[in-house]
């Protein structure tokens, strides 16, 4: 019996800040992920310094655009204090590899 291939993963590690001041630059880093993603897309936040509402909005838009392509998004490396922000905005399903 043939084995089913595992879905491919594409990953993006964001560095610096994900805030109002860096949002445009970070979105430009994310665009190739949206354009070429198949299988599963992962965004790693472990190297971020700051995450504000603008950054959460970027991640929400990224999730929306990837879902439109049938690609689930998983956010890795979120700090505990950020997880409450994700939950408050109905985005808890994205945190720590919980592929929807």
Structural notes for this entry:
With 100 residues, the chain is of the alpha/beta class. Helix content is 39%, strand content 26%. It contains three helices and three strands. The chain has helices spanning 23-36, 53-68, 80-88; strands at residues 9-18, 40-51, 73-76. Strands 1-2-3 form a three-stranded parallel beta sheet, covered by helices on one side. Strand 2, helix 2 (53-68) and strand 3 (73-76) form a beta-alpha-beta unit. The longest helix is centred in the middle third of the chain and has 16 residues, at 53-68. The chain is globular, with a radius of gyration of 14 Å. The model has no long low-confidence stretch (mean pLDDT 87).
Topology of helices and strands:
Layout: E1 9-18, H1 23-36, E2 40-51, H2 53-68, E3 73-76, H3 80-88
Helix pairs in contact: 1-2
């Amino acid at each position: 019996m043939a084995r089913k291939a595992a879905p491919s993963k594409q990953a993006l590690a964001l560095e610096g800040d994900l805030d109002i001041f860096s949002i445009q630059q970070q979105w430009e880093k994310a665009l190739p992920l949206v354009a070429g993603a198949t299988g599963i897309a992962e965004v790693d936040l472990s190297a971020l310094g700051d995450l504000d509402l603008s950054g959460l909005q970027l991640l929400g838009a990224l999730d929306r655009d990837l879902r439109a392509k049938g690609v689930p998004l998983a956010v890795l490396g979120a700090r505990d204090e950020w997880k409450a922000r994700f939950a408050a905005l109905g985005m808890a399903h994205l945190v720590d590899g919980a592929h929807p």
